[in-house]
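Might I ask for a little of your time on a matter of protein folding? What I wish to show you is a protein chain and, alongside it, a tokenised description of its three-dimensional fold. I should value your view on which stretches of the chain appear to form regular backbone elements. You will find the record immediately after this paragraph:
***
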Amino acid sequence: MTGFAQVKGQVPDQAGEADGHLGFTLSLKSVNHRFLDLHFRLPANSDSLEMKLRRVLKENVARGHLELALNIERSGGETLSLNHELVAAYVAAFRAAAAEFDLAADLDLNAVLRMPGALDASVTPPNGQFDESVLHGLSEALRRLNEMREEEGRGIERELRARMDQVRKAQRGIHQHRQAVLHAYADRLKARMQELIGIQVEPERILQEAALLVDRSDIQEELVRLETHVAHFLGLLNEGGEVGKKLDFLLQEMNREANTLLSKTSGLAGEALKITETGIAIKTEIEKAREQVQNIE
């Protein structure tokens, strides 16, 4: 499900007071995804913090493509952080190249500090309070994100209930046409047998053959199963929680029943044509519901 949240925070000093020199902005953005897919944009040297953030997100989010961005904000008097590992690597590479090619050259510190990443104001500060402050900010960001996601979820739920209401109405409409379709089967069978035999067929014979045809072509079972699936679907919506995959499975089953229903009533006119039209409408509602279910955890 989609959502966005952003929080700002201040990192307290060693005395526990927010000194105003170090702050951060934490952003969360969530879009639809079948699984939980986490992406981080953090300052350098944030491996330990990333592990903590990842654990919290996994505990609070079940599905979605989730992006977390963390930016450090320092006051004007704050000095830049030196990336010691990167600078040391630059220096070592310079000396190795000078020795390999037997060059007499002095190392220019200004040139080293201009190398990308040598000086970085976004390097995670050593302040022990920083991780704790960021995690506290993440809790607030998750609360705001979930509020937005829940609001979207309520809208999706309303639409899904409306779709299921349309499926139920269509299913009941088909049930009303069913008896007329059974008579159409008998009439078609009678005409076909007369055509093949060329004589008047006894009514008992027609009834026997019609009974066999109806047994293979009756749509009552499909209607019952469709109604059962709709009731189960609405029950899951009432329960709440992580039901997205279950709802998607039920919609697949509904679609299967609709396809069987259409195949059994193909080739007939009259009332059967109305059933075909209604069956297609059912499939349309199911497909629209499936589009929305993909957004639910």
